[in-house]
Amino acid sequence: MISLKILQVIPAFPPATSYGGAPVVAFEMTKALSDRGHNLTVFSTDVFDESQRIYSNFYKYNFKVFYFKNLSNRLAYKYRIYLSPNFIISGRYVKNFDIVHVHDFRTMLTVVIYFFCRLYDVPYILQPHGKVPIEVNQRGKYFKRLFDYIIGNRIIKNAAEILVLNNDEAKSYRIISKNVVIINNGINKADYELPIKQNFKKKFNIPIEFEIILYVGRINEKKGLDLLIEAFSELCKNKDKIILVLVGPDDGYSEHLKNLSKSKNISDKVVFTGFLNKDDKLSAYVDADVFVTPIYYGFPLTFLEAMLYGIPIITTNAGDRLPWINGTVGIITEYNIHSLEKAIISVLSQKTITEKKDRISDKINEYTWESIVESLEEIYSHSVK
After folding, report:
1. What is the pLDDT of residues 116-147, one digit of tens each?
2. Closest residue by Cα to residue 30 from 62, 59, 60
3. What pTM value is reported for the model?
4. Is the Cα dihedral 142, 144, 147, 153 positive or negative?
């Protein structure tokens, strides 16, 4: 394939990994495309976390990253509202690229890039990292409906392709556009070392003999973490040496979960670590006995990380679904306390033998960035005029 000039657009980009999995996906995708000879540039904002910013542009790899100043860190971190006047000015450079890949949907950045792509007749790929439909009780639903009515639906309709992570997402976008392609998330195995076992337990004062039920992700009300604590509370009635570890930045829901744990008299058995650096997070996986995410949307990178270390995954049928999980690398169960408790008991009762861990780890070979980027190149080639 001929070398393309590709612009990647995303509101937050590494080292801003506290903004979830999308920045990591965009980074790995950009790096893999650059390694295959394409000319890559990234436009992002200078958000780092809730209070810090990124103060310099990034040229470490074979691509450039421009971090445009964002007016409010608080609005960006808490509400995902990105306001960057300099980014608006930068939009005129869209004409210098063969194709634009946008990693978001309902943001000012997407609207700006959409406008300039249409102005200069440059094709764009839209990868929203989530569903379009608005849930009945979803926060900000009225703003989202207004956004979709004014501009959002046009952004979807005019995209060369919409990249989604599973069939549930695909169905929601096909209501508006036929140009929908499922493309998996990936993982770069070379970036993951094997931490020393028990390091995580020692750091967080967890007894060596305790079994760890692990969640990694944002502490958000949409993740079903209240159900996880309820199921864990039931589990504690019949099992002593277990602990629930919730790893990830607070999305305004930690206090509720801590109060729930206290009301169940299990607060001493529920650990909230907050955001962890990469080494500590990987140490958590290595020491964990089961990985639980009650509700997810898309294709969480945390699933791939758990698989890499041979940790069985438990999820439910309440959110999106990746059917290959069930019976291969874990269990998909009903969304209720009893079913989730039963699934955790089932995994913990099976002493994790080497053969089982190896089978889970081997599944990861289907999700390397090398194979995913080959598919992405085909999508780009069909889209470029």
Report:
1. 999 999 999 999 987 665 554 455 578 888 99
2. 62
3. 0.80
4. negative
